[in-house]
Design brief:
alpha+beta, Phosphorylase Kinase, domain 1, 14 strands, about 25% helix, globular
């Protein structure tokens, strides 16, 4: 399996082709962005942590039957993943009111919802990723009614699993973003992108200290330390350090990937 040319670069990741047309390599950058790319910075070590955390979460989800694009982690910054045609909708699952929902509706920050709220946002940076309805998604052919029903069911299952995972390490899962796509090899809708402190709001259950990208959005500082704390609590970061440079993850055991 050889790494080929760059085929896509986003705000936080780069996708490279491989010798298998149904598989690609996903590289995690250290770039941080907020407010639809209006705020930018480079945060050394963030990509390494997101790669490791996302691998752990996606692997755990696979074990409970949530199909996703992860094949395996290759090294500190890269994963081998299934190539998928991404549905141009971000699915945001909310358990606690904060962020844009507070601003839009005037509901008090920190209000716990009586059931999860799923919102749809059209993936378009130039338009500011606008909030859209199910009817928009169907009318413009981004996903069919049956596909949306399946995705909503997956969102709720993922939320249940992640809430249990995080509350077990004394973290509140406030909200998170998911993306889905159609796998090139079989056309099946699968979970894609990443699940990490870049895509989740995570609060310490006792202090409500933010352990996610809000530390960058709100200029709270100690971003890498917060991500390290999440990794440490998940049991995938054992080094007790405050400096990202000494962090070294062991390379995973080599596994031969057969062409599909």
């Amino acid at each position: 399996m050889k790494k080929g040319k760059k085929i896509y670069e986003g705000k936080a990741k780069i996708i490279f082709a491989t010798t298998d047309k149904s598989l690609v390599i996903q590289h995690f950058k250290d770039d941080a962005t907020a407010f639809n790319n209006q705020k930018k910075a480079n945060i050394e070590g963030k990509g390494i942590l997101n790669n490791r955390i996302s691998e752990h979460i996606l692997s755990s989800l696979k074990k409970v039957g949530i199909d996703n694009h992860l094949i395996k982690r290759l090294n500190m910054r890269e994963q081998l993943i299934d190539l998928a045609e991404i549905i141009p909708v971000e699915f945001v699952v909310r358990n606690i009111v904060t962020g844009s929902l507070t601003k839009r509706l005037g509901i008090e920050d920190g209000t716990v919802l009586n059931k999860p709220l799923i919102e749809f946002y059209y993936k378009n940076d130039e338009l500011g990723d606008p909030l859209v309805s199910r009817e928009h998604v169907d009318a413009f052919g981004w996903a069919s009614t049956s596909e949306l029903n399946f995705i909503k069911e997956q969102c709720l299952r993922i939320n249940d699993f992640l809430q249990g995972m995080f509350i077990g390490i004394n973290i509140k899962l406030v909200d998170f973003k998911l993306e889905f796509g159609k796998r090139k090899s079989d056309g099946k809708i699968i979970l894609a992108d990443e699940i990490s402190p870049d895509t989740c709001r995570l609060w310490d259950a006792d202090t409500e200290k933010k352990l996610d990208k809000d530390r960058f959005r709100k200029n709270l500082g100690n971003i890498v330390e917060a991500y390290q704390e999440v990794a440490r609590r998940l049991g995938i970061l054992h080094e007790q350090t405050s400096n990202v440079r000494p962090i070294k993850f062991p390379k995973p055991t080599a596994v031969k990937i057969k062409k599909k």
